[in-house]
Design a protein that fits this description.
Layout (H helix, E strand, L loop, with lengths): L5 E11 L9 H17 L10 E12 L4 E5 L6 H8 L7 E6 L3 E4 L12 H11 L4 H15 L14 H14 L4 E4 L8 H16 L3 E5 L3 H7 L2 E6 L2 E6 L1 H12 L6 E2 L14 E7 L8 E3 L4 E8 L4 E11 L5 E6 L1 H4 L2 E4 L2 E8 L7 E11 L2 E15 L30 H20 L1
Parallel strand pairs: 3-7, 3-8, 5-6, 6-7, 12-19
Antiparallel strand pairs: 1-2, 1-4, 8-9, 10-11, 11-13, 13-17, 14-15, 14-16, 14-18, 18-19
Helix pairs in contact: 3-4, 4-5
Length: 441
């Protein structure tokens, strides 16, 4: 690749745990040089200090072509945001170099670069000036940005009084409309509602069609697949894979759902002495029967429970309670609701509970399992195992379920019908007349 918008060579960033990053002036360097001999005289045999540093990025090399839309994916803490902060010149690399050709607009956090005491109008002009734009250029796009953000009434209000949603909308509008040659977007769309997410994704598509370079960091994998021409996967601070979106996303998801060994339930102590230990193991499997520790929203999941009793279990009932990370039950899966109690269950067996689609938002979930014989509790294990749910486009809408959705996802059918004013008046008149007649009777 002879021409590039961004070139990263052996980039590395090291942080010292528990220490704030500070910017060094010349006097700091001179003062350290003077004090160094004195420190050595005072402690000639100082004990070895334990290394408390961490590499957020290590040996990352990458090139991005002009006009390319590059997606960056990886789990939390993988180093994605650190990469964008270095490219935005917010922080300096510890090793290697990054070369950026073109005017950069970045949206890394809500309101990055905004001054809280300035109004929305003043912040727009300030950000444009920082990007090197002329006042006439900013004025030309001003109305479009304000309309996109939907803050017309509050444009002359200090942004410290904005809600987080208003802050986000204006920050994105400024970053995407001030015509940067390179746009860096971190995971900020997760804060907005579904309508705003869709609006932002549409704007990024427009930016890409205009031939500008976009680096898009997101956990919204359907959006990554739809928007990006190429994807890189970051893990543990290193670039582990790059290529076409479909291949990279599939590899990333496969790595995130590595098989988890079955939970040995026989070794788990029962807190209630009246219980009879029956369950021996629990494992989770995908729709194809392969063991997993994580599953995507809307994907199939199987719970495999093995048990061993001294004799047949009469009037047997098996159940699983799925709870959120705080232990609050979300729903109860039990054999009684589908089959009623099984008249007899063999002394040794396996119970499989299948979900055609997991109706949960991304997060960690706890499992409680129980077994009854008639009305008597035979075995019960609370929060004995957990599993993860990964982000997916559950509703096939092009974006992830909004945060206000709640923990459980439910599909529904909606219908829109037009009612003419005449029909509306007639229906209203008829119903009113009927009610009056009923009252008189």
């Amino acid at each position: 690749m002879t021409d590039f918008a961004i070139r990263v060579e052996h980039l590395g960033k090291r942080y010292r745990i528990g220490e704030r990053e500070r910017y060094r002036a010349l006097r700091d360097t001179l003062a350290d040089a003077v004090k160094a001999p004195l420190r050595r005289l005072r402690s000639p045999r100082s004990p070895r200090v334990v290394d408390n540093t961490i590499w957020a990025l290590r040996d990352v090399s990458l090139e991005v072509a002009p006009g390319e839309v590059l997606g960056v994916i990886g789990h939390n803490g993988a180093g994605k945001s650190t990469l964008l902060k270095i490219l935005s010149r917010i922080t300096e690399p510890t090793e290697g170099r990054a070369e950026v050709r073109g005017r950069v607009g970045s949206l890394l956090e809500v309101g990055t670069g905004f001054h809280p005491e300035l109004t929305g109008r003043e912040n727009i002009y300030l950000n444009g000036a920082i990007l090197g734009m002329k006042r006439s250029e900013i004025t030309r796009r001003f109305d479009e940005m304000v309309a996109f953000a939907g803050v017309e009434r509050f444009i002359d209000t200090p942004v410290k009084r904005y809600s987080s949603g208003m802050y986000l909308r204006l920050a994105f509008a400024v970053a995407a409309h001030l015509e940067p040659e390179i746009l860096l977007v971190d995971e900020v769309l997760a804060v907005g509602d579904a309508a705003f997410q869709k609006k932002c994704l549409g704007r990024m598509s427009d930016v890409a069609r205009e031939g500008r370079t976009v680096l898009f960091v997101s956990h919204n994998l359907p959006s990554i697949e739809n928007l990006c021409q190429r994807v890189v996967v970051v893990d543990g601070g290193r670039l582990v894979m790059q290529g076409d979106p479909v291949t990279c996303i599939a590899a990333y998801l496969a790595a995130r759902t590595e098989p988890k060994p079955a939970v040995d339930l026989a070794a788990v102590p029962r807190l209630d002495p009246r219980l009879v230990p029956v369950y021996t193991s629990l494992d989770l499997r995908d729709g194809g029967g392969s063991p997993v520790s994580a599953v995507g929203c809307g994907e199939p999941l199987e719970f495999h429970l093995t048990y061993a009793a001294e004799r047949e279990i009469t009037n047997a009932a098996f159940g699983i309670i799925v709870s959120n990370g705080m232990g609050m039950p979300l729903f109860f899966l039990q054999t009684r609701t589908q089959h009623g109690p099984w008249e007899k269950a063999p002394p040794r067996g396996r119970v499989v509970c299948r979900l055609d689609e997991v109706p949960l938002v991304p997060g960690e979930y706890l499992l409680t399992i129980g077994c009854m014989t008639g009305e008597r509790q035979l075995d019960l294990l609370e929060h004995v195992a957990s599993f993860s749910v990964e982000p997916r486009d559950f509703f096939d809408s092009g974006y992830l379920p909004p945060p206000l959705n709640g923990p459980v996802l439910v599909r529904s059918e909606w219908d829109l019908q037009e009612v003419s004013p005449a029909r509306w008046s007639a229906d209203g008149l008829e119903s009113t007349t009927e009610r009056l007649g009923a009252i008189r009777r």
